[in-house]
Amino acid sequence: LQGIIQAYKSGVTLQGNSTSLGRWDYSGSFFFSISAITTIGYGNLSPSTAVGRIFCIVFALFGIPLNLILLNEIGQLMLLGVQHCAHRLEEVFHWQNKASLLMKTCALVTGLLLFLLLPPLLFSHKEGWSYEEGFYYSFITLSTIGFGDYVIGMNPDRTYPRWYKNVISLWILFGMAWLALVIKFCINLLE
């Protein structure tokens, strides 16, 4: 039993009569990197050697600030896009306040669809989760709470496509930027 536990902690998963090192392949490593620099930290995968832990610390010391800069830039580009569209609507239809409100509403609805409402359908299909579990995973991930009770690509009974973790990693980056804008908007309303 100790051997099985150690193998699991090292990234070996049992699938039928064979083992797979899929947790530390390229997409698994990319997903680990994203969860580290976004500070989600699911807790399901971690370095097991002293050198790996030291590398992870150095990686996080540089990666977390760079990620915050990246998320801020992505968020600013999203905001700039919304403002540009609102400005164009004001010019074309001569709407003043209505264009800004319309564009903010469209950005909110689009973000809700792309980052919170549609991804659970993918998770239901690929992970076998219910829609509610997928929605819960989406919010817990994008808000960086990252409990680790639901983590993608970890079911040894399922086969995942190579692109899956990479696409989810990009979804996390853009979704966090969008959610940060929504939270900033809520803070402005509360203040």
Overall description:
- This protein is mainly alpha-helical and 191 residues long.
- The chain has a single domain, classed as Orthogonal Bundle (Helix Hairpins).
- Helix content is 70%, strand content 3%.
- The protein has a two-stranded antiparallel ribbon with strand order 1-2.
- Helix 2 packs parallel to helix 7 (163-190), helix 3 (50-93) crosses helix 7 and helix 4 (97-117) crosses helix 7.
- The longest helix has 44 residues, at 50-93.
- Residues 16-21 have low confidence and may be disordered.
Distance between the termini: 55 Å
Biggest sheet details? 2 strands, antiparallel
CATH topology: the name is Helix Hairpins
Low-confidence stretches: 16-21
Number-wise, the strands total 2
Could you estimate the helical fraction of the residues in percent?
over 70%
Shape-level CATH architecture: Orthogonal Bundle
Structural class based on helices, strands and sheet pairing = mainly alpha
CATH class: Mainly Alpha
What number of structural domains do the residues give?
A: 1
Total of helices: 7
Strand content: under 5%
What Rg is obtained from the alpha carbons, in whole angstroms? 20 Å
Mean of all residue-level pLDDT scores = 87
What is the element layout, followed by pairings?
Elements: H1 2-9, E1 13-15, E2 18-20, H2 26-37, H3 50-93, H4 97-117, H5 119-127, H6 131-142, H7 163-190
Helix pairs in contact: 2-7, 3-4, 3-7, 4-7, 5-6
Pfam families: Ion_trans_2 (PF07885)
GO biological process, one term: stabilization of membrane potential
Protein name: KCNKH protein
